[in-house]
Structures are given as C-alpha cells and as structure tokens.
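Thread: NDP complex, take 2
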Amino acid sequence: MSRVAIVTGGTRGIGEGISMALKAKGYRVAATYAGNDTAAQQFQIKTGIPIFKFDVGDYAGCEKGVAQITRNLGPVDVLVNNAGITRDVALHRMTPAQWSEVIRTNLDSAFNMSRLVIEGMRARNFGRIISISSINGRKGQFGQANYSAAKAGLVGFSKAIALEGAAKGVTCNVIAPGYINTEMVAAVPKDVLEGKILPMIPVGRLGTAAEIARCVVFLAAEDAGFITGACFDANGGQYMAT
Ligand code: NDP
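Output below.
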C-alpha cells in the first residue's frame, strides 16, 4: 500500500510542485489550501490530487481536515508543512495583527498539523515531517521580523521533534528555500527583483518549485530514516549557513 502524504498549501506555488512530485513517486497525496477555490479546483483537475480546504492556523479546523483526509486516504505517513504567508513591514511600523497573522500561519500551523499526525506516526513506527522554512529565517531579512521569526522557529521546532521521534521512526526536517519563482516572489517589485535579489544569487536565477520538491521527495523516502533534525538550504548559493 502506498504511503499517504499531506501537503499544506499544496495547490499553488512550491506546494503544487511538492504535491505533484510526491504523486509521481507513488504517494497518495492530499493537498490543502485556505481560500483560493479557483486555483485549487484547477490544480485538482490538472493533477487528479484531492484538495481539502481549511485554515492551518486554526487547530479545530486542522483537526477536522486531518480527520477527513484520514477517512478518505488513510493514516498520514508524510506531513509537509508548506503553507505560508508574508506581511512585510519594518518593525517600527509593524502592527500586532501583522505579527500574529504571520506567526499563526507559518509557525502555529506546524504545531497544529504535526500534533494531529504525530501520535499515529509514533504508533506505526514511521513518519516524515518536513517543514518549509526560508532563507530569510536563516539570515534575517529587512521588513520581515515576523516572517524571519516564524521561519527560524520552524528549525528549533523540528530539532525538538526530531529528538522526540527518533526512537519511533519519525524524522523531522526543514528545507529552507531561497527565492523561488512563485506568486509570492512575483509580489516583489520588478526593480527590487532584478536590481537587488538576482545579483545576490550565485546561480543567477530564481529557483523552481520542482527543485524544492526534489528535496522533499528525498527526505520523505523510506531510506531517509537516518536524516533527522537537519535543515537543507536550497538557495542557489545565496546563503551558506555554517
Ligand atoms: P504561495 O503564496 O504561492 O502559496 C501558498 C499556499 O499556502 C497556497 O496554497 C495557499 O492557499 C496556502 N495557504 C496560505 N495561507 C494558508 C492558511 N492559513 N491555511 C491553509 N493554507 C494556506 O506560496 P509559495 O509557494 O511561494 O510558498 C510556499 C512556502 O514556501 C511558504 O511557507 C513560503 O513561506 C515558503 N517560501 C517561499 C519562497 C518563495 O520564494 N516563494 C522562498 C522561501 C520560502 P490559497 O491558494 O487558498 O491561498
């Protein structure tokens, strides 16, 4: 029986690439999303991957969503915490709402979703939890105190879960993408992208969703059980963490 994978925010951008790559490897994939029904339905028609709509920042919503996915597809073996948002503004102008919204969607979500699948993974002695962080959680970024904090938080969270899951076959890892060619990056002004961001990327281009999906497939594999508590940087050489 093939394994079941949930990809949060799996209908667009990087998540879409991850959903498709896991499906191509034989996983039964559930792709979740928040509110963009049109994009989600187009994704479902294109890929044949079932979609589930709930807010990853809301524990009760996640509980219902995970229960439905489990009923439809079976117990969850692989969780990819990918859903994320930005609300960029310098700290001296950031509102409490801008702080909370980003922490809730990017970090609380990892607790919510991981908490709901961890007991089953431990009971079955197999699990893969993979969270999508960011280069800006590794190095910090002007205007992103909220986002950088949430994304760095995923690294500490994952190291703790890696320790807790180690004896139970549950690995927990992080992927920290650099700038990837998605709608999130399309929101960056063209002059900033071409004048400031691209010159900082040694490979000279944005990354692709497929290149991040490549890392997820690697970490989700049956024979990836010795890799846990790691953070994979996939950023075109832009930031080489020690
Ligand atoms: P997109 O904005 O293209 O897609 C985001 C996805 O997350 C959508 O499916 C969206 O659903 C879903 N989502 C957003 N908020 C919620 C929520 N509250 N509950 C459930 N689902 C939600 O993002 P990207 O593909 O660009 O980014 C994916 C991840 O990668 C994010 O965590 C991001 O921080 C990270 N990342 C992205 C980089 C980039 O360059 N793009 C670089 C580094 C990290 P809906 O379609 O309904 O809105």
